[in-house]
Design goal:
363 residues; mainly beta; Elongation Factor Tu (Ef-tu), domain 3; seven-stranded antiparallel sheet; globular
């Protein structure tokens, strides 16, 4: 039987020598300038398949800051070394993000909202830039969009719709709002492919090929029962550095976050980096009344719409355990599939603080 996912990784050095290896359970990677590959996930008919894109596109800039950031409200202007010579707002018209790779903000991602020839303005998301300094290294990387992940005319995952109306709708791509409070939330953004154009399922059905898929996010591919199964293939460059995910907790309610595993290899629960030091709140005991943060995993081989988690895990006593309702077996070594979509349920917090999860690659 074919596994529900398949991964291929290629490593490329400056001499363009190519080394390929098929991943089924794990991989020891060799040193290289860049690592490329793909992940394939089966998408059954009559089912939601919850996925993420564990690769990034080719950076358009790799360098460091030539000075301290200049603040402008919730935005910061970053001056770049070298002579990138960007056109004005080029990185907005082609949506891009800054990814710090050194310094106190290593792994953090910020959307570019403006740029000049050798500077970019980023959205700090309500944070500050006091710990961003001269010499901090960064990359500027194009965002994935619906058009780049599912290019009309060549993609083989999505069944195009015959019309924009529900009666003619085939495959849908659905996203969750990362800013909504509460749990068990339904997707609030729905997209479909009609002809060679991505459209959003709102009044007027506007073109949506430029819809950004943020790094570290997940989404679901919904096939109706009337279509044949397909596969979702994501590919390009492997992320070999730390990745930061921010969780804005609530002091009024627990809150669900739909996130993606940014690694294209199986990762055990203990390798995720979801620990107390990384903002994941442990439960004092297995007692449901004392439950804090939870990690929900989904089985993409189980063909169903409105999919519920196949397993719920939490941390207690420094270990991962499965919530089976009785014995709570130790689960540190349970693997998470490449390119998986995860749900992290953050418990109600006293102060509504932002927690930061830093995931470090295991390869």
């Amino acid at each position: 039987m074919k596994p529900p996912f398949e991964t291929l990784i290629s490593t490329r050095s400056e001499t363009l020598a190519l080394f390929c290896v098929i991943l089924l359970c794990g991989l020891a990677l060799v040193q290289a300038e860049r690592i490329g590959g793909f992940v394939r996930v089966d998408c059954p008919a009559g089912s939601d398949t919850i996925v993420s894109v564990p690769f990034h596109q080719e950076p358009v800039y790799v360098g460091e800051l030539s000075g301290a950031p200049s603040l402008n409200g919730d935005e910061a202007v970053l001056s770049l070394t070298g002579t990138p010579d960007f056109s004005d707002d080029e990185l907005v018209l082609s949506p891009s993000y800054v990814r710090f790779t050194s310094g106190a903000r290593s792994g953090y991602v910020f959307a570019v909202v403006a740029n000049g020839a050798a500077s970019v303005t980023v959205d700090l998301k309500g944070g500050d830039s006091s710990d961003i300094h001269l010499g901090d290294e960064l990359k500027i990387i194009p965002h994935w969009t619906l058009d780049s992940v599912f290019p009309p005319g060549t993609q083989e995952t999505v069944h195009p719709s015959s019309s924009a109306f529900a009666s003619g709708r085939k495959t849908e791509i659905q996203f969750f709002d990362a800013n909504s409070n509460g749990t068990e939330l339904a997707p609030d953004q729905i997209y479909f492919l009609q002809g060679a154009t991505w459209r959003q399922a709102v009044k007027g059905f506007p073109a949506a090929g430029a819809k950004v898929i943020p790094p570290g996010s997940s989404f679901l591919i919904r096939h109706p029962g009337t279509v044949v199964p397909t596969s979702f293939v994501s590919q390009q460059w492997v992320d070999t550095e730390d990745f930061a995910t921010l969780f804005e907790t609530s002091d009024a309610t627990a809150k669900d976050f739909s996130v993606g595993l940014v690694r294209p290899v199986p990762v055990s629960l203990s390798e995720l980096g979801l620990t107390t030091a990384n903002g994941f709140v442990e439960s004092p005991s297995p007692d449901p009344e004392q439950r804090k943060d939870e990690l929900h995993l989904f089985d993409n081989a189980n063909a169903t719409i409105n999919k519920l988690p196949s397993a719920v895990y939490f941390r207690t006593g420094g270990n991962w355990v499965l919530d089976d309702g009785s014995s709570y077996p130790l689960s540190n070594d349970v693997p998470v599939s490449p390119g998986a979509g995860l749900l992290i349920r953050k418990s109600l917090s006293n102060d509504g603080a932002t927690h930061v999860w830093i995931n470090t690659p295991s390869y």
